[in-house]
Amino acid sequence: MNLTDNSQRNKVPYYQYSRYLKDRFQEKVYKLPIKLNLTCPNRDGTCSRGGCIFCGEEGGSFENLDQRSVKDQLRENMAYMGSRYKAKKFIAYFQNFTNTYQPIEDFREALKDCRMENIVGVNISTRPDFLGKEYLDSSAELLQGLDICYELGLQSVNSHTLEKINRGHGLAAFIQGVLDLKSYGFRVACHLIMDLPWDDLLDIEEAAKILNALEVDEVKLHSLYVVKGTKLDRMVQEGEVDLLSKRDYQDRVIHFLEHLNPNIVIQRIIGRAPKEATRFCNFGESWWKIRDEIIEEMNRRNIQQGSLYVR
Ligand code: SF4
Fold first, then answer.
1. How far apart are CA 105 and CA 142, in angstroms?
2. Protein residue closest via CA to atom 4 of ligand 1
């Protein structure tokens, strides 16, 4: 997909995930979130205790069904999404916590359960420093013929920021993780928070350039949520950290997209979180309004994803 080709560009000035899925499968495809009963090595003491300073009890996911078997979650979600959006094909998405931090037998069973009619791909969220060979071998073996994408939380490319937010890994672990996944031929998605107060515009630009160099396939951008009861919540309440403005967030997203290879797929330019769980989320506005304003501003300034991309 080449967004610099005017004939292929529509109003949205970046390579939207929905468009990628249509290019890839020639029809609508929806992601179905799956929740497993897991934790994270950054919470249980293996890497660190307490987790990332912004992470709540849900482990980075607010959109899942309750604890049921993988097959039941997929069936139920498929029926709902299929009738609501008229979709016939789906991607199974292991969304919460660290999916490669569970007994290998359980991981293998979960993957086997994804082999259902109309499931065309499997996305697996995890940390870049927990990509054990047996998990990657199992993915290649059990998901043969399906699209496989590993979604890695990174949040920032600045190692000082990663330390501040207690990620429990640095940038090098992410680079190694991407190289390992690429050696299996898997797709790689990267999750980034654009408005971490310890990052500046140079970090944002560098993030785009690092993802370009590593040939990461997809990106998901979020704003910084303050989930009630987290360490970040306390830091904000006690005035230890000042949150950035909506305008800062939008400027950073645009700056990031300008420097990003136009062939990298953008899953989202802003995330969603329920109001009840958060003290501060998306600047008190709806995600789609913030997204639309970014698109409008990019169009007004004639900016597209990759406008400043240099190979
Ligand atoms: S790595 Fe993910 S699940 Fe673990 S503490 Fe951080 S945000 Fe939460």
1. 12
2. 40
Atom of ligand 1 nearest to the CA of 41: 4
Contact 84, 114 (CB under 8 A): no
Whether residue 289 has pLDDT greater than 90: yes
> 3 CA distance to ligand 1 centroid (A)?
33
Q: What is the number of other CB atoms lying within 10 angstroms of the CB of residue 79?
A: 10
Q: Which of 36, 39, 40 to mutate to test the pocket of ligand 1 (most atoms within 8 A of CB)?
A: 40
Amino acid letter for position 163: E
Strand partners, 151: 125, 189
Length of the chain: 311
Cα separation, 90 vs 30, in Å, equals 5
> Ligand 1 centroid to 42 CA: how many Å?
6
Q: Do 243 and 284 contact (CB within 8 A), yes or no?
A: no
Asked if 250 and 205 touch (Cβ cutoff 8 Å), the reply is: no
Using a cut of 0.90, tell me whether the model's pTM lies above it.
yes
Phi-psi region of 101 (alpha: psi -120 to 50; beta: other; left: phi over 0): beta
pLDDT in tens, 29-70: 999 999 998 889 998 889 888 899 999 876 555 544 456 899
199-255 pLDDT, tens per residue?
A: 999 999 999 999 999 999 999 999 999 999 999 999 999 999 999 999 999 999 999
The token duo for 29 is: 């495809």
How confident is the model over 146-190, as pLDDT tens digits? 999 999 999 999 999 999 999 999 999 999 999 999 999 999 999
CA distance 216 to 219: 8
Task: Report the alpha-carbon angle 293-8-121, nearest 5.
Answer: 85
Assess whether the C-beta atom of 41 lies below 6 angstroms from ligand 1. Answer: no
267 pLDDT higher than 50? yes
